[in-house]
Amino acid sequence: FILRAKEITTFIKGIPNVLPNQFELFQNFPNPFNPSTTISYYLPANSIVTLKVYDPLGREIETLVNGYQGVGMHTVLFNARNFPSGVYFYSLRSLLGRNMVRKMILTK
Question: How far is residue 7 from each of residues 4, 10, 13, measured CA to CA in Å?
Answer without folding.
Answer: 9, 10, 20
